[in-house]
User: Fold these one by one.
Assistant:
Number 1:
Amino acid sequence: MNKTVLITGTSSGIGKAAVLEFARNGWNVAATQRSPEKETDFANFANVKLYALDVTNLFSVEQAIDRAISDFGQVDVVINNAGYGVDGTFEAMSDEIIEKQFSTNVFGLMRVTREAIKRMRPQGGGMIIQISSMGGKITFPLYSIYHATKFAVEGFTESLHYELAQFNIQLKLIEPGPIVTDFYGRSRQFVKSSTTNQYDGFIQKFNQAAEKVMKDAEGPEVVAKTIFQAATDNTSQMRYAVGKPGPLLLLLRKILSDKLYFLMVRKSYNL
């Protein structure tokens, strides 16, 4: 019997690429989106079914997972991909902006994880793959609350894996570097102060350097292939870095002192 994967946030980017990667490799795919009625790219795949799922709504999460299990028999792998990024000056960020970022990237991921566990434990096991970021291990300017959410995902997942091992439920983390997706386009939420211009020079320097980095960025397909590898390599490896220069930066963060790493980042952004 073919295995089944449920993926959140599949309307674009990494999530969409992951659906196509698993479908082409013969898996049953439960592709979830907040507005699945708008999706047209999966029509030619008989092994892909669409479900409405909003990670911020518990009933929506429960209903989508249960419908997928009803249609496919069981869900073997759940991929927590839904998320977005907020960047900008922290001073200008309202409680509403901060809470919304955590509501999706952390609490939504936790909600899907918990409901997946409830269904995987009785079936004898499964796998939950969290789409984190290199930004869950290292930091860059102007992404303070985004980094906070990804650091939370890393710590949550690492701790959780101890208690789930007894149930044969495996946890894995994917840590992409810069990837060409809507994360840097229509999904980007940039926050700038309306009461002071004292950050403007800093922001301008950062954006100019960031644009150069994105010129060399890889597409979401490279992440999708790494996700598929994580789901199928039958190893106990937890973390998978992907997307240049992410793996190199993660290595440098391990071996450099705080002082040297911070200096490297500042020089990279001319700060």
Note: Residues 4-268 form a domain with the Rossmann fold fold (CATH 3.40.50.720).
Number 2:
Amino acid sequence: MYKSVEDLIDTATARRKPVSDLMIEQEMQTTGLSRDEVWKKMERNLEVMHSAVEKGSNAGGVYSKTGLTGGDAAKIKEYRETHHSLSGDAVMTAVQGAIATNEVNAAMGIICATPTAGSSGTLPGILFMLKKRINLSHEQEVRFLFTAGAYGLVIANNACIAGASGGCQAEVGSASAMGAAAAVEVAGGTPEESGNALAIAMANLEGLVCDPVAGLVEVPCVKRNAIGATNALVAADMALAGCTSRIPVDEVISAMNEVGHSMSSALRETGQGGLAGTKTGKMIRHRLFHEV
């Protein structure tokens, strides 16, 4: 079990192995499964992600029972196909995948929690854009998920990944950091560059609160995954360009944890503060649950 990102990076560098290989080996040791069995389990996660993006993006999209979310991924797909987007097609492809996945989640569909249901769109948004942009093979897609999982495991063991514990910085922030690190590896970067990407991505979203309107994982959760995906890509590019985090990556993780614990409970998934506490947020809650 790797106790820190530094430990993970040092081991990968010393053994001249990608972090994805280290994670596969750890899963084999922890579960007692063969390499092929571990690989197939991750392939299943990849299949679920693919299905969610397709379902959320096509045929007008999907809609939640509350009517608060739905159809935006399909709108973005049409926009991409008929307009010159301001932020570029790569960015909007990532946004489409992220939102599609979280709309499927809000509509009670099947998703892969990475690391949570509320942040489930961030990694697919990153991954499927990269698949298209740099022609990732199936093996590279699976390895991306193992790499993200390795860094996510360290974050979970040293900080938190739940909005109730640390705000949305712990959910979308962690997912964005995991995705940034994994994006660097599949793009040919070093473990050290992955660590810098993780630190930059996490620091960028430090302090992000969890304020779901009516206590539901819809508003603003769905669209925050779009920010998580794009933030990860920016952080990955910065790291690949040679930019570094002045604060060591493990200290960034510790800082996120400290900030999360210092947040008011109203800003940690209770649906009381932030956007949930606005006049309109309260009206929506009352309409859905007849509560003040």
Note: The two ends are 47 Å apart (CA to CA).
Number 3:
Amino acid sequence: MCGRYAITTAPEAMRRIFKYQEMPDFPARYNVAPSQPIPVVRLWDGERQFALMRWGLIPGFVKDPKTISLLFNARGETVNERPAFKNAMKRRRCLIPANGFYEWRRDGASNQPYFIQRRDGGLLAFAGLWETWIGPNGEELDTAAIVTTDASPSIRSIHHRMPVILPPETWDMWLDSRRVDAQMAAALIAAAPDDALEVYEVSPAVNRAVHDGPELIARYTPPPVTETAAAPAKAARKSKKDDRQQSLF
């Protein structure tokens, strides 16, 4: 699963990497959460196009979005079978730029967040799917989900799933749904090479979506837990709400 990520590359640099014509201006985000707008690169009239979409895909057949769960991840093993994703897999595949993503390791009652990025600090491209949901009054909402797969060995001890990270030489194949069918595109769904990624602990401040700053991706050393502090901390964890996910509405 991928429930939080960071996109910090400057807009002009990202434009050069993905080769789209638009010149968007958007701020660095260090704690992108489901239901928020995210940058997406799709193929439109044969050209790469930048777009902002809501993170949380709404299938076209849905009448009322409030009746479904927030579909911010699409399991790669079943994208060609699940009704929520199979049409997007056939016709509406996209790239979701990111500089890294967060995963949490559960240790008893606590969750320790980790940040995963390229070892060279470069930009990632998650495999994504998108849909335009049309409401009963004709309103339109572009929505997207990140495709996930089994985790690489270095991530597996933290979480068993990870986003599908597409290398640049596969971007055209993933985007081109006219020439590349869903079954061929599914061959690209795989874990990233283990030696390409760096994993390290970060501050629990990322647990709250209201926190958004470069300190969230800084390396973090948890403070030692004393015996006198252990009991209150345990009680606090039980009462604290986990707000890593947000409602779409």
Note: Confidence is low (pLDDT under 50) at residues 239-249.
